[in-house]
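Narrative of activities, Objective 1.

The group set out to show that a structural description can be obtained from nothing but a protein's sequence at a throughput compatible with the screening campaign. Below is one input-output pair from the validation batch, recorded exactly as produced.
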Amino acid sequence: MDLETSAVISAAALAAGAYLNAKLSVGIDLKNLRHDRQWGQRLGAKIASLGDTCTIYGIFDAVDPNIEALWFEEKTWTYGEMKRDVVRLAAFLEEQGIRKNEFVAVFTTNSPEMVITILALSKLGVVAGLVNTSLRDATLKHCLDVANATTIISTPDLSQFLLSGSTRHFALNLGSFDNVPAPTDPSIFLLKTDTLPTPTVISPPAKATLAEIACLIYTSGTTGKPKACTIRNHQMCVTATPTSQDMDNPKKYFPVRVYSPLPLFHGTALFTGLCYSFGTSSTICLARKFSSSRFWKDVTDSRATRILYVGELCRYLVNSPPTPYDRAHRCIVATGNGLRSEIWENFKDRFGVPEIREFYRATEGLAKFDNIDSGAWGAGKVGFAGPLRRYLETDTIILKVDPETEQPYRDLKTGLCVRAKIGEAGEVVGRVKNRAFLAEYLNNPSATNEKLIHDVVKKGDSWQKMGDLLIHEETGWVRFHDRMGDTFRWKGENVSAGEVRDHIAQLDGVLDAVVYGVKLAGYDGTAGAAAITIKSGAHQLFMKTLYAGLKKTGLPAYAMPRLVRITQEIEANATFKKAKNELIKKSWNVADPGNQDTLYWLDGQEYKPLDAMSWGSIESGRAKL
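Output recorded for this entry:
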């Protein structure tokens, strides 16, 4: 073969490769597959290095004691300084007879005290039940009862909300709560720096396997009472392993200083914040709670290079007034989940954060996707997988769903499940590779089994249902579509609440929106309702143009919200998820004295104010919705 022919063949091969890469994203898939393999090797090495102490304490204890571990309200602690307090608290708890595998409820505000408590319990091999601090009364008692906690550890600002009883109760204040009155209940024992022992001989940490329970994280309770998810030591090690994105450019990303205003009882803060910081010999910068006005000052003062977000946090920041700290910080990465597409680029542009890492996960879930920021075209997506990645993927898949039963569709011949087509909404599931590492619901096997599905790809396999509908687009991007159960039927058509919400969010003047279904007597199906917050003083003009605006975005007539609530604020819970259940409970009767919102109904192709007469017409089923 002559040189000219060789050159032509080489050029053709390069052109073909470039075409395949552009058309099929082969290069991206190969890179991601390589990243997965390298990460798996690092995970194996980390587990091996821990020996028989596969705990978050074991990970923490391996870090150089001179490195900064924690920043909190202008104060810092090195790993060595923090270990001193961890050892002292662990020694005290051991003196009280607390032993390995017991359950201790942790009801604490974000603080050094909370971090020290988690580590001290881990050192003893005790399971920390991380209770949502916004819970009160019967729901709070339920969370304590589920774990059968032998002891409660609180911070003094929260101690009063725990009913005195037979369970031992310690309130911990190592300096972060000096401005809070000490508990007056005589059954609560106040622990301070001078009451903790200083052991002359430090007992070794408890031995623990990967399958043993490290802690409990409770579900939000949106579909009933909160359930306790058993988080295994394996998951703590997984989330403490450096990502391939960071390892590709360690000089740029390490050491990490991650700022989190998210509560440590939530998986994002615990895993992506605490575990990842300790696993990479880095620093976690904690805020007591989220404050939009203080957020960027904290990020600047703490010298954070990374921030955590979840749900609507970024929307609150974008909608907040400007501050001198908006771009005075060193943050180069924002990582979390639930960042909406209409906020994504606005957030990056306003605050100068160049990289967003959106991930799809659930505390107890196995399925996962990652969207490592690639520009505006990936805004609002949860992950990416080209044809090669889809073909080779064996752990996370999207299943075709029967629209009537909302159950995975099965092939009539094989009895196995069928994958959703490209562009088709389906339920995402994650493969159960090792049942021993599965995050189950404590003392609730029926709830655990409800999330499992068998005979999916082959007979005898087991997968975990996530309860979410996702769509794999032809471009390779994966996007969140809706939560299972948030799709309702109206006029014989399936309506996706999430899809309608996305159409509303495109309109000028919209600050926030939630869409949900309401049952109305006299009407078949479920009527769509929307709660919307808009820029002040503009709601009348907005409502006059709402129908035409939604039609212009491509929303079909049957999916138009039949009822609209203009409200000042849409409440979110402690983890920045919209309190949709509270909206569903709200009355549409304008005569109700507690109704402070402005209400509208869809009359033909026009939204009109909802008055007593029109509501009476709807209640009786006479109105043509």
